[in-house]
Amino acid sequence: MKRVLIVKVTSLGDIVQALPVVADIKRAFPGVQVDWAADEAFAEVAQWCEGIDRVLFAPLRRFKKARSWADFKAIAVSIAALRAHRYDFIIDIHGVYKSAIIAFLARSSRRIGYQSQDLGERGAAFAYTGRFGPRPECNAWHGMRISAGEALGYEVQGPAVYDLKLPEPAKPPFAGERAPVAALFHATSKDDKKWPLSHWAVVGAELAQRGFRVVLPWGSEGERREAEQIAAQVPGARILPKMSVTEIAQMIDACALVLGTDTGFVHLAHALQKRTVMVFVATSPAHCGVDAPFRSISVGDGFSVPPISDVLDAIDYVHMEPQALAVHQGSAAA
């Protein structure tokens, strides 16, 4: 085994949670080169992974919206780069038309994808010469690791390894700040995934009382206005300026706590081994959640709005020391 291509095109959280596949492959096949194909909008995330040898990308999302000639030419150039090497295996762990087309255009006689019932778009099946086994009964992130292992003939071992190394910031994000920083990612791409602003304000005020400096990132004008509503009720809260993906990642890495909905940046916080609480309102925590003892936890059932008390309990949990956790677990068992 000399060279493998992983295809996972979007989005930020999905790419972050797929990265442990790289460490699995490199552990199973020492010396193998692992390349990654992604949308240009998320290519920098894959580039942070030290195990990836080459990141291939094209402005697919932008071309779909703008249909510009410049983006079309960039896609043509990316196809040439994609076909520059022959791969022993191509592993499509995305399973939609655009990922299947990438797999089909790349040079390999072994292109592996999901079974038809597990594909995001069933027509993607045209690209594959082989299929993964049935989707395993586990969360989506571990399932990707299992599927890749099935395709390449190794067993998944140990916890997920993300192998992330961020670029050094020009200036530390919270230089001079003495209090631990808690970032509240209240915004989300879909309204049904939102946790009420009033709930964010209560939790933010509680964190401020506990000695945290609460910061609020945002991406759109609507999200900024919501951040202002929360900040008005949280002593000392700071609304951050608009930042790039890399700048937000560097900010997360400087935080003591990250709390947010099921969004890509909160998944990134988990991958960066920050103390993380993820709030689920309309998506499945069993399928998409995060979990690491003492450090990351998912709150909610995915069908209703989690109460404030559950989120505060989760914050206590991720800040609990191992000895205290053992006592806590013993009390719960009793």
Explain this structure.
β4, α6 and β5 form a beta-alpha-beta unit. This protein folds into two domains: about 150 residues, 3-Layer(aba) Sandwich (Rossmann fold); about 150 residues, Rossmann fold (3-Layer(aba) Sandwich). The protein is built from 14 helices and twelve strands. The strands form two sheets. Strands 3-2-1-4-5-6 form a six-stranded parallel beta sheet, sandwiched between helices. The protein is globular. α1 packs parallel to α11, α2 packs parallel to α7 and α8 packs across α9. The protein is of the alpha/beta class and about 325 residues long.
Topology diagram in text:
Blueprint: E1 3-7, H1 12-18, H2 20-28, E2 33-39, H3 43-47, E3 54-58, H4 60-66, H5 69-82, E4 89-92, H6 97-105, E5 111-113, E6 130-131, H7 140-152, E7 181-185, H8 197-209, E8 213-216, H9 221-231, E9 238-239, H10 245-253, E10 257-261, H11 264-271, E11 276-279, H12 285-288, E12 296-299, H13 308-318, H14 322-333
Parallel strand pairs: 1-2, 1-4, 2-3, 4-5, 5-6, 7-8, 7-10, 8-9, 10-11, 11-12
Helix pairs in contact: 1-11, 2-7, 8-9
Number of helices: 14
- Strand fraction equals 5-15%
Which CATH-level-2 architecture of the largest domain? 3-Layer(aba) Sandwich
Structural class: alpha/beta
Number of strands: 12
Shape: globular
Terminal CA distance reads 51 Å
CATH homologous superfamily grouping of the largest domain:
Glycogen Phosphorylase B
Estimate the mean pLDDT confidence: 93
> Main beta sheet: strand number and arrangement?
6 strands, parallel
